[in-house]
Design a protein that fits this description.
5-stranded antiparallel beta sheet, two-stranded antiparallel sheet, BirA Bifunctional Protein, domain 2, alpha+beta, 195 residues
């Protein structure tokens, strides 16, 4: 599992990042951002934390302008990009199910919106999970505080979290590994029972 912060200081616009993330164009304020590489994801979904519904952020074209508007600093982090390789044994529906389960875990753990995309396998590589996660917690009224992975040291202390986000990174990588192992184990048990 790899993670990358998406900030205004490194990327021209969050909208181009989103288009490249999902392989689909996004139109905001009359401007269309085309992906650098077109592809058809096997799964593309916005995942909210359990029990949270926010119609104002329910589509890509609503979510990402709201993310942009929520951050005032010129060098603000706008999103966190999580990427994982789906085990070769899991393709199609089971790879998508694994990815959605991790996306739900990520949304609940951070309290943020996750834009989940699953890239189908190619000749050179396994299927891949991409999760573009907002940096702020979300509720029925929209965005709130920064999520625990994106807090400053002072904010982390104030909210009672360890000083470094390494704990969250370790927890989320461990969750991905557990989910992968569980899905592969169930697949292998099903194959063994069938033979």
């Amino acid at each position: 599992m790899r993670v990358q912060r998406i900030s205004r200081s490194k990327f021209k616009t969050i909208y181009q990042v989103v288009a490249d993330h999902c392989g689909q164009p996004i139109t905001v304020d009359g401007l269309t951002y085309e992906p650098q590489n077109d592809f058809n994801p096997s799964h593309d979904e916005l995942i909210f934390p359990s029990g949270v519904s926010c119609p104002a952020l329910a589509t890509r074209n609503r979510l990402w302008p709201a993310v942009e508007a929520a951050e005032l600093r010129a060098d603000a982090n706008l999103a966190t990009h999580w990427q994982g390789v789906i085990p070769a044994e899991l393709h199609g529906i089971s790879g998508n199910a694994l990815s959605v389960e991790f996306g739900k875990h990520l949304a609940d753990y951070l309290g943020s919106v996750v834009h989940l995309v699953v890239l189908p396998p190619s000749m050179a590589e396994n299927a891949r999970l991409r999760a573009l996660c907002t940096t702020r917690e979300v509720g029925p009224e929209g965005f709130g505080l920064k999520n625990r992975f994106n807090l400053s040291v002072a904010q982390r202390r104030k909210r009672g979290f360890p000083i470094s986000p390494r704990t969250e990174l370790s927890d989320l990588r461990a969750a991905w590994d557990r989910l992968c192992s569980g899905y592969v184990g169930r697949r292998n048990a099903t194959l063994a029972a069938a033979s």
